[in-house]
Fold this sequence. Notes:
homodimer, Aspartate Aminotransferase, domain 2, 15% strand, 7-stranded mixed beta sheet, Aspartate Aminotransferase, domain 1, 41% helix, alpha/beta
Amino acid sequence: MELKINRYAAKIKPSMIREMKVMADRYENVIDFTLGEPHISHHTYEVIQEGLHERMLHSSLGYSHQYGVLELRKAIAAYCKKNYNQVYDPASEIIVTTGVSEPISAVFKTILEEGDEVIIFSPSFTLYNSNVLMYGGKVVLYDMIENGMKVREETLRKLITPKTKAILVNSPCNPTGKVFSREENDIIYRCIKDHPIFVISDEIYREIVFDQVKCCSLSEYPLLRNRLFVLNGFSKSFAMTGWRIGYVLGPKEYIQTVAIVHQNFVASASTISQYAALEALKHEDLTVNIHQNYEKNRNYVYQQLKPYFNHVVLPEGAFYLYLDVSNYGLTSYDFAMELLKDKQVAVVPSIAFEPKDSGYIRLSYCCDFNVLQEGVLRIQNFRKSL
Amino acid sequence: MELKINRYAAKIKPSMIREMKVMADRYENVIDFTLGEPHISHHTYEVIQEGLHERMLHSSLGYSHQYGVLELRKAIAAYCKKNYNQVYDPASEIIVTTGVSEPISAVFKTILEEGDEVIIFSPSFTLYNSNVLMYGGKVVLYDMIENGMKVREETLRKLITPKTKAILVNSPCNPTGKVFSREENDIIYRCIKDHPIFVISDEIYREIVFDQVKCCSLSEYPLLRNRLFVLNGFSKSFAMTGWRIGYVLGPKEYIQTVAIVHQNFVASASTISQYAALEALKHEDLTVNIHQNYEKNRNYVYQQLKPYFNHVVLPEGAFYLYLDVSNYGLTSYDFAMELLKDKQVAVVPSIAFEPKDSGYIRLSYCCDFNVLQEGVLRIQNFRKSL
Lengths: 386, 386
């Protein structure tokens, strides 16, 4: 007697990022560059703990509204308007979610029909691909590395078909640190504006951009507003990963369905975590110069490792370094495993971020500077030994 | 230019429970019998706050493992073994989730193919039906009310077809308080054992059973173990609804796919909420006599309202009263709205729990006794006025 499970669920694989983290934890004195987990989370808690303690004593910690605690939605609306000129109604156009993972899944569940295509700029965050596949969709990759890390109009146009349901932009990008320029956003806009294509803009790294560049967004094109979802959250800019609070902004017409999907997924986000996010928003200063912490690390890791590898992508934002390890006769996975075994440095191989293996590894450099120094030294020594 | 969304997502409706709660909140002096939200949540926080405060200062509040904090999984394994003789490996057979809503969705996503049928005992919790529909499945209802609140073998056998993928049992049941007897579980077992049918046992109200009855479970049938998912959590027995921590137990073979779906949904559950649940498990005494609180309320509300209505289901567990309001010329929704407008008592109409409207309302009586008294008085007066 055979019990069959869903054929799409049967095909998806666990996140390689988490798998590498689990492997890293088996080693002593490991330098862990796997997760995108800012090292300053305890500082966040110091700032929010007083307010949070009061909340726990005096507020209901029962179920929140399925869209989230209204006070938090209002604070998010104000924050997005002030900082990004994104104007959304807290009553009907903002849903507070369990991290940014949840709206990725909820938006894809809402819009995708089996066989629909989603254009994704590759390499990309693990859960985009797997969520599209989980709902029976098809991932259509724009290969950034083959295109010199640039969006080219002729390349992009060729990917659009009558089956294209959505395009997803993650800028700054995990895992490359790529920031989409205004010209590149213009190209995307021109390519899709006359087609019935949804736009998903994952802006979770938006606060972390280097070289005094200002991050722009597809939310700046008024004609896209009625088909655009903006995803953002507290994990990266406020260093609150484990609290699992994100949000999705979008037009009321579609947000109401995303909200029902969200209700079916989780009912509502953790109320204590929502109050923590509300406290964090009272301390916007936490994020004002956050990019400076990472820019120092970025400069160091890029300058130190560039001479040792064939191609290192210069990160314009986020806190990841993506570098080519393909010319040592090892797959990216084997390179990562050898590095871990030999030097106890944990990184994520590119197969986590691409269906094919282009032979890169990702380093997450949102750690303390002295940890970064030690890890870089070990990687240099490992590279010399090859 | 038309943007089409997923045809199943387009059809699902928001939970009527939450909608009635939102309406209730518009009235002053309202007696709110809508949500299944225990009134003792602040007491829980008093008990766990010291341990939790320490955790926040000294533990990582970063992402947890996608299966959940291992220490919590071990504590859940010990709790389920000790109290329910459910033996599951914390490393591979337990996932900590965002409430019990999330594993409902994750399990259905894992097992359901479009067109698959799920047998559900009706009336039932809102999110079972909507999740099955969201994934393109078909809900096949066993009508408990037409069957005198009993599981009958000949009725159940007729519902099983080659398309039946799963059967879901929620005992004690929301919204009726029905507890499935051992004989009824035996019937279910006999009916399904020779068919490739998954079993989902939602045991979230398991601690709350009256009249000294011991709640039994489909987990007691060894031959079902390799196709059974047990759902449970902290919302009801530990009065921790808003913390959103539940769990799913199941065979490793399928749990590994549920875990990937869960990772795609939310990455992992809120870490602070997981630590709160861990603290709660150190205070099992919180739940030992929890049924007594509700039994007093159950006895009162049943005895007081039975004389006023045609049919009132005697709750054997959980904390809901389901009563027939069909013979006053109003739909269940209109009855609930009139009761709210006229007497400021908020209840949930049966259309929340059944595709058709059998003309019942659900009262959640997990409130303070004096609140219950006042609400019952108002309902009696409303009934007399009809």
